Each structure stands twice: as structure tokens, then as C-alpha cells.
Amino acid sequence: IQSKLPEVSTSIFSVMSGLAAAHQALNLSQGFPDFESDPKLIALQHKAMLSNKNQYAPMPGIFDLRKEISKKMELLYGVSYHPETEITVTAGATQAIFTAIAATIKKDDEVIIFKPAYDSYEPSIRVFGGKVISYQIDPETFEINWVEVEQLITSKTKMVIINTPHNPSGQIMAKNDMKQLERILKGTNIVLLSDEVYEHIIFDGEQHQTAALFPALAERTFITASFGKTFHNTGWKVGYCLAPSNLMAEFRKVHQFNVFSVHHPTQVALAQYLKTPTNYLELNSFYQKKRDLFLSLLKESRFKFVPSKGTYFQLLNFKEITSESDFDFAMRLTKEQKIASIPISVFNKHHLDTHVLRFCFAKTDDTLKKAAEILCNI
Ligand code: PMP
Ligand code: GLN
User: Which PANTHER family does the record associate with it (predicted)?
Assistant: First the structure.
């Protein structure tokens, strides 16, 4: 067949995790914890499996889980998403992103994305014939010039995709960024996809600026979220999508023929687990401690960094260590020093190389200490 995605090869996450395994390296590349999910949550899933919850769940997700997600949005942000018509449970955020794009994008539609960008956006747009319009975020300051973004909008712009807290930079959208975006999109037919998978991992007392808080955004936005990131079980692949009912109706038309519904016992367990808000409210301080430990141990290293503001990723600049490309350096570190990371040029426009690697600190303190020891000797 003629490839629909000729430019796509194996994802960097598979490449680096594969290399880490082959070389028995510490794996701080792909974003997942090296510790277990709460045994209480695992027990809830086990219980659901023993209680006859092993057949198809309802297409949009079990009502109890949608109700708990709705209550969480009310509690955290004072916004209302109706469980019946505005919330759908998905097979991770990846499927929510793909389905939102599939429901919206036709051939030649333009989609504005911000680089560095999570790797699934671009192929998901292209596979439906959409055209990716990239805006490169300033690699030094990570600031977005909204006047420049506005200039990228044409009559063909169908969607804008944002991600806050941002993978891989660890930056967050400020209230003013969201206000600027709201100003630009107000009065247009442009749909917003707001990828908020790290909403519960944000540091130093900052507030997550969900698109749901901005009325002129909320009315046009698919918000995507991931329980894997929040409850330390990325392998369960359960997430969800929030959107106003007109958008959600289109989303579900695709969702029902994409997966139809997702893992039933996990939904039962998550619904129960969400009833205790501390289960997600404590995540910020949990990960802030890990970020602070990792960075305090790296003080003596030759890497330069600005502390991550959110996500469980930390960028480390290696300009003073070597002039190798980030890709070559990441490969060499994995093979020779036994520590794996992600070169971030793969997420940049024209693969711009800023000599920066991404390290995942969703790791036990012991792993972080071992990692820092290696990095301090480089
Ligand atoms: N968006 C971003 C920004 C991510 O980092 C990830 C990786 N977790 C996803 C989406 C996909 O999430 P999930 O694993 O739930 O599919
Ligand atoms: N979101 C994870 C990361 O950024 C990886 C997810 C994946 O492997 N597809 O590392």
C-alpha cells in the first residue's frame, strides 16, 4: 500500500525504552513511574473483576465514573460538565486526542500546534489529510508570542492544540496565555483541543489553567485527560474527554467505532477511587518532592536547568558538556553511562536541536539518586 504516513517511524518512546532495556540502563526516558500504583486501587480493580464487571461497559463509559469526573471538575474549578452528554471515558488520552481529531479534521484543514509538541498530534492530524501548522515556542524562554500565533490563523484553520502542563518542557500556561488564546479564538469556528493530562502535576503553588475556566474557550474545547498519569498506572490506558454536548456528540460517533468502550473493571475501580479527592490532590506535593530531590542532587553536575513547573519531566541542558547532537548524546548516555533520556529535538519544528534532554522523575528516590550520581559524573 501507499503509506499514509511516510514520514513516521517508530516513536522515540519505544526507541529509547527499547535501548534502555537492551543496555540495562536506568530508564528515565519514556514517561512512566517505576513504582506501583496504590494497592487500594489495584484491589478495587480486582474486586470489580470478581464481581461480574467483565463484559462491555456502556459506550461513553460507566455512568458512575463519568459522574465522579464531573464532580472533580466542579470541586477543582467550579465548572460543570454533564455526565450524560459531555464526558466520555477513553482508552487513555492518546485515543481521546485521536478521536477528537478524527471527529473534526477533514482533508486540507489546518491545525496549529505548539512545538516542541507531544508526538501523537502530528500523525493523528496528517492521517486525516489535515495540514500541520507549527509554532515554535521560544527555546530559551519558553514564551509564546500570541501576536505571532494569531498571524498563523487562516480561513482553513480548524483546530488549535495546546498542552498544559507541557510535555516535554515542564512549562505551564499562565492565565494571561489562556486569555490571549481566548481573545484570538472568540468569534471564530476554530475548535480547541486542550491536552491536560498533567493537570494534577503542577508545582510551587501554581494553579492549573484549564480551558474549562475560560467561557469562550470551553464552548469550543475538547479537554483530554489521563488516569495513567494521575494514578501511576500508565499501562491501564484509561483516560477521558470533556467537551460541550454538540462536540461530544460528534466525538462519540467516532469513539463508538474506534474502541466502542474501554476496560470495564478499571472504570468501576476508578469511579470508587475518585470518591476520595486526596487521591489526586496529593499528587502535586508528591511529585514536587521528587523534582526537588532530583534537582538538589544535580546541583553539582555540569547540566544547566530551570526547574520544571509541571509534568514529571525535567529538561537538562548539556551545552557545556558536549557539542554532540541531543540524539547522539542520548544514545551514548544510554549505551555507555547506562541512563536513558529523550532528546527533545524530535518534538521541535524542523527538529531544532537546543542541546537539551528530557528526564522523567516519576521514579523512586533510590532511582533518582542513582540517576543523579551518573549525571554528576558526566
Ligand atoms: N498527552 C501528553 C502530553 C502525554 O505526555 C501523554 C503521555 N502520557 C499522552 C497525551 C497520552 O496519555 P495516555 O497514556 O493516557 O494515552
Ligand atoms: N507520554 C509519555 C512520554 O511523554 C509516553 C507515552 C508513549 O510512550 N506513547 O514519555
Answer: FI04487P
Q: Which atom of ligand 1 is nearest to the CA of 226?
A: 15
Q: Where in the chain is the domain with CATH 3.90.1150.10?
A: 12-30+282-376
CATH architecture of 12-30+282-376: Alpha-Beta Complex (3.90)
Q: pLDDT of 72-92, one tens digit each?
A: 999 999 999 999 999 999 999
Residue 288 contacts residue 362 (beta carbons within 8 Å): no
State if residue 195 touches ligand 1 by the CB under 6 angstroms criterion.
yes
CATH code reported for the domain at 53-276: 3.40.640.10
Check pocket membership of 226 for ligand 1, CB cut-off 6 A: yes
Mean pLDDT over residues 177-193, rounded?
98
- Please tell me whether the peptide bond between 215 and the residue prior to it is cis, using omega within 30 degrees of 0: no
Ligand number nearest CA of 346 is 2
- Per the DSSP assignment, residues forming a β-bridge with 304 are 317
Q: What pLDDT digit, counting tens, does each position of 36-51 carry?
A: 999 999 999 999 999 9
Determine if ligand 1 sits within 6 Å of the CB of residue 322: no
Q: What are the grid coordinates assigned to 193, written together?
A: 483541543
Q: Which ligand is nearest to the CA of 238?
A: 1
What value of ipTM does the predicted structure carry?
Answer: 0.98
Half-sphere exposure of 351 (CA within 13 A, CB side): 6
Residues with CB under 6 A from ligand 2: 11, 13, 30-31, 167
Q: Cis link prior to 307 (omega < 30° from 0)? A: no
Span from the CA of 197 to the centroid of ligand 1 (angstroms): 6
